[in-house]
Structure formats: C-alpha cells, structure tokens
Design brief:
Layout: H1 8-14, E1 18-23, E2 28-31, H2 33-39, H3 43-46, E3 58-59, H4 72-79, E4 83-92, E5 95-109, E6 115-124, H5 134-140, E7 144-149, E8 160-163, H6 165-171, H7 175-178, H8 193-204, E9 209-216, E10 222-233, E11 239-248, H9 250-264, H10 274-291, E12 295-302, H11 305-312, H12 314-331, E13 337-342, E14 345-351, H13 355-370, E15 374-376, E16 379-381, E17 385-390, H14 399-415, E18 421-423
C-alpha cells in the first residue's frame, strides 16, 4: 500500500494528535477535531482566527501568561525554523482548568522559498504532567506566609493580599481582618525602629531582607519572628508583589533571654553580678554624657563580714548577703542599678542624682540598717556597711575608672572607722 492511497483527510479527522495549519499571517486554515477539543474552540470559532485573537490564552511551563510573540506559530514565523517539544498550557475564561500540551511546529515554503503556512501539532500531556497544588502547600505550612502588593506605599507599608492559616493561628487576625491592611498593624511599642527602617529600605529598593522582629498579636501578646521578605516578579521581570516567610522564634528568644539573665545575675542575691553591672552602667554612662544628666556611683562593703562567717557559719553569711540585697532593693529606687560585685562587696549607680543628696541618702541608709538587723531564729545579728561615693565628671572615661574612684573612697571610709560614708576626692 502506498501513502498516496490513504485518505489524508479522514486520517487527520480521526487523529488523536491536534493538528492546526496557520497561514503566514497566523490565521487558521484548518484544525482537526482533536485540535478544536484541546483549544476549546468550535469549528466556526476557529475558522479564520489568528494568534492575536483574544480567544487564545497560553501559559508557559512556569504557569506565567505567555506573550503573543512567544506563541509557537509566531516563533516559527519569526525564525522560519521548526520548534520541537514546546510545553504550553491552554485555558480560557470558561474554566480554571489548564490543558497542557507538548507542541511541535514547522514552516512550509512555496517553490520560491517564501513562507506559505505553519503546521502545528500538539499532544495532550495534562494527565502526565504532575500538578502540584502550591496553594494547598502554602496554606498548610507551619511557617507564616504573607503576600503584599508592591505599589508605592504610605507610612503604614504595602497592603496584604494573602495570608495563610499559620498567620491566623499566630496573630489571631482572620484573613478578612488582615487582607487590605499593612503588616505594620502587627508592630508595637517595643518593635525596634532600626528593624522597621531596614525592612522599609529593602521594600523601597525592591530587595530581599532577612531579619528578626518583635510583633504583637491581636490580643497584644508579643512574639518574635525570624523574617525573610523577597520580591516576586512577573514574566516581564517586574516586581508585582512581596512575599514574607516568617517563623515563630519566641521560645528561642525566651531561652536566650533566660541564658542572658543567668549570665548577668548573682544566683544567691538575684542582683546583677559584676558583668551585668558593667553592661548596664556603661549604657547609662553614655546616656548621661549625651543628656548631661548627673549620676553617682557607690561602692558598699559589709563591715567585718568574715567575723559573721566565722561566728555563725557560711550559711548565715549567705543569709546576711541576701538580707543586704533585699534591704537595698526596698530602700533605693527601682531606677537605681544595684549589683553584688563579689564577696561582701556591692555597687550602686543612681541616675539623675547629685553627690550631696546621695550622701544624705546613704547616711540615712546606715541608720536604716542599724534598725533592721538580720534575724536568725531568735537571735538578732547586727552588721554595718562602709560606703564610698563618686560623681563622674564629663572627663570620666569608663565604668572601670569610676569604680576605682568609688573604691578609693570606700577604703577611706574603712580607714576612718567603718560604718561611714566617704566621697572620692
């Protein structure tokens, strides 16, 4: 049997491969039934329409809308070269379902080598193509996922256009409450201004940013996020949206805070330890220099503490240190920084204070301790303290130098008989 003996028309009409013949201006000359089925066109609709007709809606393999110039027929017309195994998604307004085809196209020329028509064939590969429902994956993710628009935005920031279920679980805001709002509704009084500005700069520059931020739920509960924001681009490379992937790290932050607290606290008295005092005092010293607000630093030592340990044992000595700590915390202001520096030695930093008022304050404190001895069972154990005061000047370089000055004044108080307050020269 010769191929010429075959009924070509009947063959095309019954072929399970779509076949479309376009003229050199892209208008359809012929489409077999399978092609009409795949293209979702009737024979009347297909007759004479071209690639520029709005009925044609194609997606590329990344599910992005394909430009008309990238349609298979137009690529062949432009290049005069065949196109092989080109993946295309076809859809229209009648359905959200996409038909995926593997497309081949080739040009046919006249005897004088002029383009006459383009033959396009395509096979339905929808059943073979694994459709991953990314929306379901995003919706079920444990991490918070937010998508915002990218339009020029006011002070509040771009508006949310999508949030997943993890967002609602963490923040307490429903999707309806969140959509149309800016993510800044989640920020609060303790959200770091520097972090806000870092995010804003990245959005303005259409850059990615990774940071940690303190946010607040609808009920006002604080939580920490590890946050990554990145731009989303369309097929033309334009930024259309921003996406944020956020992981709740509140437990991690709480743990870090606990470790930090343990590292700067004296376990016996719960006061700051030496390290904690240096950190706090350094910060306050810098502030006082900027604000020209006076501070006073005191070094305090329990007199003859060794005698208490020797006479009553170290357990009672520990109780004496705790007794001292409790009375210092109750007597001095909450804004004052109190620390146990080691052994029986304590330090105190008082903000917005002058040296004369602090002398009077400590003279009264000595009398206060005399009226509140340590009670151990039925016995009262009195003890006194010596105090050295100093008021840093503008030329004071650091906390260590200030403590040395206060320590010299403390030595002077001890040398003069103890249970006294002395001031550094």
């Amino acid at each position: 049997m010769k191929f010429s003996d075959l009924d070509a028309y009947s063959l095309l009409e019954n072929l399970q491969t779509g076949v479309v013949v376009h003229d050199k201006n892209t208008k359809i000359r012929y489409a077999n039934p399978k092609a009409l089925e795949i293209l979702r066109l009737t024979e009347d609709q297909a007759r004479g329409i071209g690639a520029y007709d709005p009925l044609w809606r194609f997606l590329d393999k990344n599910k992005q809308a394909m430009s008309v110039a990238d349609y298979p027929v137009n690529q062949v017309i432009a290049s005069h070269k065949p196109l092989s195994n080109f993946e295309v998604g076809i859809y229209d307004s009648s359905s959200k379902d996409v038909t995926w085809v593997l497309c081949n196209a080739y040009p046919e020329f006249t005897d004088n080598k002029q383009l006459e028509q383009v033959v396009v064939t395509f096979v339905d590969i929808t059943s073979q193509k694994q459709n991953i429902c990314f929306e379901n994956i995003v919706e079920m993710a444990k991490d918070v996922i937010i998508v915002t628009d990218s339009d020029p935005f006011p002070a509040g920031g771009p508006k949310m256009v999508y949030v997943n279920e993890a967002f609602t679980r963490l923040t307490g805001y429903t999707k309806d409450e969140a959509i149309g709002q800016a993510p800044s509704i989640l920020q609060g009084i303790d959200t770091c201004d520097k972090t806000r500005q870092e995010i804003r700069n990245a959005l303005c520059n259409q850059d990615s940013v990774q940071t940690q931020i303190l946010n607040y739920s609808k009920e006002g509960e604080p939580y920490w996020l590890d946050l990554t924001i990145f731009p989303l681009h369309n097929s033309e490379g334009e930024v259309t949206h921003f996406a944020a992937i956020e992981r709740d790290i509140t437990e991690q932050k709480d743990y870090e805070s606990t470790l930090k607290e343990l590292s700067i606290r004296d376990p016996l008295t719960t006061l700051l330890n030496r390290r904690g005092f240096f950190e706090m005092a350094s910060s306050l010293l810098s502030q006082s220099k900027r604000n020209l607000s006076p501070i006073v630093v005191a070094m305090i030592d329990i007199d003859f503490f060794k005698n208490i340990n020797d006479a009553y044992g170290h357990d009672i000595g520990d109780q004496a240190l705790q007794h001292m700590s409790l009375h210092m915390q109750s007597y001095f202001r909450k804004s004052d920084i109190i620390a146990r520096m080691g052994g029986e030695e304590f330090a105190l930093l008082m903000t917005n204070s002058d040296i004369n008022s602090c002398i009077d304050k400590f003279e009264t404190f000595l009398a206060y301790l005399a009226e509140n001895p340590l009670k151990v069972e039925k016995e009262l154990i009195p003890f006194t303290v010596s105090v050295g005061l100093t008021q840093p000047t503008e030329g004071s370089k650091n906390v260590s130098d200030i403590l040395k000055a206060a320590d010299k004044a403390l030595y002077k108080a001890k040398h003069n008989g103890r249970n006294k307050v002395s001031v550094a020269d």
